[in-house]
Design a protein that fits this description.
This protein is mostly beta strands. It contains 1 helix and 22 strands. The strands form 4 sheets. Strands 2, 3, 4, 7, 8, 9, 10, 14, 20, 21 and 22 form an 11-stranded mixed beta sheet that branches. A 6-stranded antiparallel beta sheet has the order 13-12-11-5-18-19, with no helix packed on it. The termini are far apart.
Amino acid sequence: MRARFLGAIATVATLVGMGALPSATAGAVPTSGVRSLRMPAAHGQLIHPFSTNSSNNWFGYQQGVLEKNNTLFHSVSGSWIVPKATQHAKGKAEHSSDWIGIGGGCDNAKCTVTDNTLIQDGTEQDVSKKGKASYSAWWEIIPEPSTPIHMTVRPGDHMSSSIVETPRNSENWKITLRDVTRKEKFTKNVSYTSSYATAEWIEETPLIIGKNAGFAALPNLTSPVFDHGTVDGAPAKLKSSERINLVNSNSKVIGAPSAPDPDLDGFNACAWAKSCKAPSHS
């Protein structure tokens, strides 16, 4: 069963103290519709901050309304290459996803204020206990469960996505996901009340629900090479201060985004690494 972490984010202090999941008082984990019986995970969940610029479930870039002088986000776009997933630890099921979204992140670079709305779409790259990789696409609006996108997804595919509120302040959104390599396209119009508070380009480890609950193990992944990032139709102008590292329960960095590419609209993301080299060109 797929499930979704609902409610407010636990405080950074609580997360640091626990080094793991938020407490029950921070939100509930209800069951959702069946997406895949073999993958009991929630892949596009809200950020779980660990400390400044680090998280237990996200790594990549995110921009916040407070950092951007109270500028709200009404659209986001970006592209990525579907990573090839291979098993990192023998005999262990491992899960990951790559996505763009609005909401769900930190309103400022220090992550002292977080947001509990999120509209997003992306791809998923998982490895079974026996080492078999699987790939898929999905979209989601929290707190609703994720919805699969019926699209062929393979490692190396060039994906392009946009999430646009149109007209502005209407709470009507158009989600578009393209597999440029295979010339497949998905569009969905949805009504959603957003905070407009954050925009992000993320590689993530899901939350496993049920047996062995906790954050999913991270597979080995090639870099998704995020690129062409925009917010409100303009280049994202990413800053290194907006980077988020993925850390495990022992505070060890296990996923790192690179510095921005030369035109400040993309980056590499390196799984099972403490650092990551930036793309030499965009």
